[in-house]
Amino acid sequence: MASGRYRIVRTSKEAAMRDFVEHALDLLLEHDMAGFAGLWAEDGVLEFPFAGPGYPKRVEGRDAIREYLRDYPNLLDIREIAAKTVHETADPAVVVVELTVAGIVVASQKPYELSYVAVITVEDGEIRTYRDYWSPLAAAEILGGVDELTAAFGG
After folding, report:
1. 118 forms bridges with which residues in the sheet?
2. What pLDDT digit, counting tens, does each position of 37-91 carry?
3. 93: helix, coil or strand?
4. Distance separating alpha carbons of residues 140 and 150, to the nearest angstrom
């Protein structure tokens, strides 16, 4: 091109990955935790690399993930995705999502806002791995303390 500009063309895999992420976030906003957990492969994994003491570092299998997420809406009432950036990677099966989630802590009715980075691997339309990077200290502060965080999400 004479102008030195170029056009980025998204592949259908990139578009599908972005659609997948949007669908997953819609399920969270709808408080459909069974639907959200249903996005995982039967043997998919949810990992928390920064998990603190008393908090699971890994949840394995769709059924275990469904159980783990079941009461989430009773703890946090997610009302909006306040910020979101989706990054494609060199591997079309992997996407990195930066997001800030906002809502209300159900028990205290206090505002909730926390930022996350998720590294998600999707194969055959299902999540194989979902690595969830977030700050346990920030979450504990929002929920009212480490004991409350551990009681809410502990293993």
Report:
1. 97, 132
2. 999 999 999 999 998 777 889 999 999 999 999 999 998 899 999 999 999 899 9
3. coil
4. 8
> How far apart (Å, rounded) are the C-alpha atoms in residues 131 and 82?
20
With contact defined as beta carbons under 8 Å apart, do 38 and 23 qualify?
Answer: no
Q: Which residues pair with 69 in a beta bridge?
A: none
pTM of the model: 0.83
Q: How far is CA 129 from CA 24, 28, 47, 61, 123, in A?
A: 14, 18, 7, 10, 9
Percent of the chain with pLDDT over 70: 83
Please state, in angstroms and rounded to a whole number, the distance separating the CA atoms of residues 136 and 8: 37
CB atoms within 10 A of CB 19: 10
